[in-house]
Amino acid sequence: MLIISYIALCLLFIVYLYTLSVRIEGKIINVMVPYLIITVPTLYVFEGIFVYLSEVQNYTVEYLFFYTCYITYIASFVISYLYTQRKPIYNKSNTKNKPRYVFTSLLFTFLAFIIYLPVLMEFREYILSPRRIYELTRTGYGIYFYPSLMFSLVASICAFFTYKKSKLFCISIVLFNCILIFLHGNKGPIFSIFIAFILYLSYIENKKIKFMFLVKSFAVIAVIVTAFFA
User: Fold this and answer.
1) Does 101 or 218 have the greater pLDDT score?
2) What distances in angstroms separate CA 147 from CA 13, 116, 143, one per listed residue?
């Protein structure tokens, strides 16, 4: 029970960090949202259920050490961000910098595709079964896998800044990178793109986004992505 109690205590501290973020930034959709959506369910809810149903009392020290390190990490990040980012964020989406975003989104999309192309060619018989590609490339393919994912994410984020100039271009770039990420057999980065877009709307476009809309949208995407890999 000590492990579960400590996990619950850490979860309460996460809730405190979120309320602190809301109070300081005045935004429901803030820097804590990605952590709340992606990490909290797996690390605090499902893991707590696992601990309750399993005999892991012999690993009490290990669990306490792990959660202490993790809570220290997220607390350091959030607090340092909240109390160092004092300059206001100005919306520059209508400036002459837009051509740069077009170029960088195209460049990173090209790099993401070229880097991952050797894997697609080697496992071309599994193109329609990307999860199988993921299973076969768990070791020895990191030099292709992770840079490609990173460039796809960066390309998608750059494309967000072209949305007002050309919705077709923005949607095309993001869609292409989503397809490329699907071919990696890893659904996690798809959620990252969605969350990045929500943060873009909140911080750059200053849109008021309701939390329940975020939850419902995330649930729909989760169902679609899970069905794709089922």
Assistant:
1) 101
2) 34, 8, 7
The residue behind tokens 């069905």 is 227
Claim: this prediction has a pTM higher than 0.70: yes
Task: List, as own/partner pairs, every contact residues 100-106 make where C-beta atoms lie below 8 angstroms and the sequence separation is at least 24, other chains included.
Answer: 101/158, 101/159, 101/161, 101/162, 102/162, 102/165, 102/166, 102/169, 104/154, 104/155, 104/158, 105/155, 105/156, 105/158, 105/159, 105/162, 105/173, 106/155, 106/173
pLDDT of residue 225: 64
Per DSSP, the three-state class of 123 is coil
The runs of H, that is alpha helices, within 85-137 are: 98-122, 130-136
Report d(CA 46, CA 6) in Å as an integer: 14
DSSP H helical segments within the chain, as ranges?
2-25, 33-34, 40, 47-53, 60-84, 98-122, 130-136, 142-160, 167-182, 188-203, 211-229
Domain ranges of the chain: 2-84, 98-229
| Exposed / middle / buried, residue 93 (Cβ in 10 Å: 0-12, 13-18, 19+) | middle
- Dihedral sign, CA of 131, 132, 135, 138? negative
CA-CA distance, 26 to 33, in Å (whole number)?
Answer: 13
Angstrom distance (rounded) from CA 221 to CA 209:
17
CA distance 198 to 192: 10
